[in-house]
Amino acid sequence: MKKGIKVLIIVLAIVLVIAIPTISSYNGLVSSQEKVNNAKSQISTQLQRRADLIPNFVKTVKGYSDYESETYIAVTEARSAVNNANSVSKQQEASEELDKAISVFVNAVTENYPELKASEQYTALLDELAGTENRLAVARKDYNDVAESYNVSIKKFPRSIIAGIFGFEKVDYFENAEGTDQVPEVSFE
């Protein structure tokens, strides 16, 4: 009987030695994954904020000008794509398209309607968009930081085994759009 109790205690000790680190690793991976999800939602929040500011901006401009409908359509479609993006890569693509559309829109309007620059509402909305762009840059940086931490944690041994068993997968980073490493050429001709 004493031998049976000793064997049972040894078996329980072995199970505990395996179970406790496994549970701890799993819980750590879940926490890391939730930090990634939270950071991703912060990006979505800022993209939505920017998308919500755009109609007000367009209405303000519309009051001053008869802008090209092509430009407005491009902004509207890009805004819709941001709202419908459901993955990091799709959000990134849609965000880049919206950036381009806004840039074309703002440049066309400010060049063709200089009196608009004096409008307080226009200036305030432009400032809001700039602030949102800054928030978005911070949110992307924060996301990439937690994504890096998460990706490293699922690759390190012994967590890599736990990650593989429970299906934790690498997450994508937000990366710069192609061509953003090139300095734009400015010409006053």
Description:
With 189 residues, the protein is an all-alpha fold. It has one domain: de novo design (two linked rop proteins). It is built from 5 helices and no strands. It is rod-shaped and about 95 Å long. The termini are far apart. The model has no long low-confidence stretch (mean pLDDT 82).
Short structural description:
By secondary structure, the protein is mainly alpha-helical.
Q: What's the domain count?
A: 1
State the total count of DSSP E strands.
Answer: 0
**What is CATH's topology name?**
de novo design (two linked rop proteins)
Low-confidence stretches: none
Calculate the terminal CA-CA distance, rounded to whole Å: 98 Å
Average pLDDT over all residues? 82
Characterize the largest beta sheet: strand count, sense, and whether it forms a barrel.
Answer: none
Helicity, in percent? over 70%
Q: Can you tell me the overall shape?
A: rod-shaped
In percent terms, what proportion of residues is strand?
under 5%
Query: What's the CATH architecture?
Result: Up-down Bundle
Structural class label = mainly alpha
Instruction: Please work out how many helical segments DSSP would assign.
Output: 5
Seen as an oligomer or otherwise, the chain set is: single chain
Find the CATH superfamily. Answer: LemA-like domain
Order of helices and strands: HHHHH
Q: Under the CATH scheme, which class?
A: Mainly Alpha
Q: Which radius of gyration do the C-alpha atoms yield?
A: 26 Å
